[in-house]
TrEMBL record:
<keyword id="KW-0812">Transmembrane</keyword>
<keyword id="KW-0472">Membrane</keyword>
<feature type="transmembrane region" description="Helical">
    <location>
        <begin position="103"/>
        <end position="123"/>
    </location>
</feature>
<dbReference type="Pfam" id="PF02653">
    <property type="entry name" value="BPD_transp_2"/>
</dbReference>
<protein>
    <submittedName>
        <fullName>ABC transporter permease</fullName>
    </submittedName>
</protein>
<feature type="transmembrane region" description="Helical">
    <location>
        <begin position="285"/>
        <end position="305"/>
    </location>
</feature>
<feature type="transmembrane region" description="Helical">
    <location>
        <begin position="311"/>
        <end position="329"/>
    </location>
</feature>
<feature type="transmembrane region" description="Helical">
    <location>
        <begin position="79"/>
        <end position="97"/>
    </location>
</feature>
<dbReference type="GO" id="GO:0005886">
    <property type="term" value="C:plasma membrane"/>
</dbReference>
<keyword id="KW-1133">Transmembrane helix</keyword>
<feature type="transmembrane region" description="Helical">
    <location>
        <begin position="25"/>
        <end position="45"/>
    </location>
</feature>
<feature type="transmembrane region" description="Helical">
    <location>
        <begin position="231"/>
        <end position="252"/>
    </location>
</feature>
<keyword id="KW-1003">Cell membrane</keyword>
<feature type="transmembrane region" description="Helical">
    <location>
        <begin position="130"/>
        <end position="150"/>
    </location>
</feature>
<dbReference type="InterPro" id="IPR001851">
    <property type="entry name" value="ABC_transp_permease"/>
</dbReference>
<dbReference type="GO" id="GO:0022857">
    <property type="term" value="F:transmembrane transporter activity"/>
</dbReference>
<feature type="transmembrane region" description="Helical">
    <location>
        <begin position="51"/>
        <end position="72"/>
    </location>
</feature>
Length: 334
C-alpha cells in the first residue's frame, strides 16, 4: 500500500512538473509571437532604444513579481506590493535627502521598510488568521496613506544628495554599463531573479513555500511551524518591494508618494502568465520573468501602434483572464 502511495505521489509530481514546463513554454512562445507581430507592424519596435525601454519598463514590475511569486506559491496574495514600493522609496528619500544620511544607509532603510510591511502582512495573515486579500488590502491602503503623510504629499528629490565615492541616486540605476550602453537597472532585475531562484530552489524557505501551497494542513501536521514560514515569505516579498522602491526612486531621481497603485496588478499578472498557480504549490522564477516581459512587450507594442490607453487595459485584462483560465484547466486535468 505504501509503495502504491509513493508511486502515485511521484506520478502527481511528474505531472505538475510537466504542466509547469508546458506553461513556461507557452508563455515564452507567446512572448516570441508578440515580438514578431509588433516588429512586423512597426519598424521602430526592434530598435536598440526601444528594446532598452522595454527592459527598463520590466525592471520594477519584474522585481515586484519575484516577491509575489513566493506569496502566490503559498496560495496567498499580496495586493500591497505597489504601495509598499512607494513607501520604501519615500522612507529612502527621508533618510537621504531630509536627514542627510549616506546613500547606502538610505537604501538599506528603504528595503527594511519593505521588509517590515511584508512582515506585518505575514503576521496578520498567519497569526491573526485574516484572509490574505483583506490583510494585504489594508496594508496597501495604509502604506499609501503613510507615503502621503510622511512626504507631505510632495515629491522628495535627490538632486541635492551628495555623492558617496562617485555614487549618486540617478547613477545607481540610470547609469550605463560601460561598453554595453545598457542601464544598471536591467542587471538589478536579473541579479534579483537569480537570487530569488536560488532561494526558491535551494533553501528551506523555498521548499516550505511549495509545501504550504500544496497542502498547508499536512505541512503543519508534519511538524513545520507554518505560521513562522508564511510570515517569512511575506517579509521576503516586502524586501523585493523595497528593492523595487529603490530602483524606482533612482530612475526618477525622486520619491513620488502618489505612485504605486496599479503596480500590484502588473506584478500578479506577470506571475500568473508565467505559470505560477493561484491555487498554490506550483511556480517558477523563470516563468515570472517571462511573464513580466510579456506584459512589457505587449504594452510597449500597443503604444507604438498608437492604441488608446483604455484599450491597452482591456487587452491586458483579457490576457490575464485567459492565463488564469488556463491555470484552472491545468488543475482540472491534474
Amino acid at each position: 500500500m505504501a509503495a502504491v502511495e509513493i508511486a502515485a505521489g511521484a506520478a502527481r509530481k511528474e505531472t505538475r512538473l510537466y504542466s509547469a514546463a508546458a506553461q513556461k513554454f507557452l508563455a515564452f512562445g507567446g512572448l516570441i509571437g508578440l515580438v514578431i507581430i509588433f516588429s512586423l507592424a512597426s519598424p521602430y519596435f526592434l530598435t536598440f532604444d526601444n528594446i532598452v525601454g522595454i527592459l527598463l519598463a520590466t525592471t520594477v514590475s519584474g522585481i515586484l513579481g519575484l516577491g509575489a511569486t513566493f506569496v502566490i506559491i503559498t496560495a496567498g496574495i499580496d495586493l500591497s506590493v505597489g504601495t509598499v514600493m512607494t513607501l520604501s522609496a519615500v522612507m529612502m528619500g527621508v533618510l537621504i535627502s531630509n536627514w542627510g544620511l549616506p546613500i547606502p544607509v538610505g537604501i538599506v532603510g528603504g528595503m527594511a521598510t519593505g521588509a517590515l510591511a511584508g512582515l506585518i502582512n505575514g503576521v496578520t495573515i498567519s497569526k491573526m488568521k485574516v484572509p490574505p486579500f483583506v490583510a494585504t488590502l489594508g496594508v496597501m491602503m495604509a502604506a499609501k496613506g503613510l507615503s502621503l503623510v510622511i512626504s507631505g504629499s510632495k515629491p522628495i528629490y535627490f538632486t541635492a544628495t551628495p555623492a558617496v565615492r562617485g555614487l549618486t541616486m540617478d547613477s545607481l540605476v540610470g547609469g550605463l554599463v560601460p561598453g554595453l550602453d545598457v542601464p544598471n537597472a536591467v542587471f538589478f532585475l536579473f541579479g534579483a531573479a537569480i537570487l530569488a531562484s536560488l532561494i526558491l530552489g535551494k533553501t528551506v524557505l523555498g521548499r516550505y513555500a511549495f509545501a504550504i501551497g500544496s497542502n498547508e494542513e499536512a505541512t503543519r501536521l508534519s511538524g513545520v511551524n507554518v505560521d513562522v514560514w508564511k510570515a517569512a515569505v511575506y517579509a521576503l516579498c516586502g524586501i523585493f518591494s523595497g528593492l523595487a522602491g529603490v530602483i524606482m526612486g533612482s530612475r526618477l531621481n525622486s520619491a513620488q508618494p502618489a505612485l504605486g497603485s496599479g503596480y500590484e496588478l502588473d506584478a500578479i499578472a506577470a506571475v500568473v502568465i508565467g505559470g505560477t498557480s493561484l491555487s498554490g504549490g506550483e511556480g517558477t522564477i523563470l516563468g515570472t520573468i517571462i511573464g513580466a516581459f510579456v506584459m512589457s512587450v505587449l504594452i510597449n507594442g500597443l503604444r507604438i501602434l498608437s492604441v488608446p490607453q483604455e484599450w491597452q487595459l482591456v487587452v491586458t485584462g483579457a490576457i490575464v483572464i485567459v492565463a488564469v483560465y488556463a491555470d484552472v484547466l491545468r488543475r482540472r486535468r491534474q
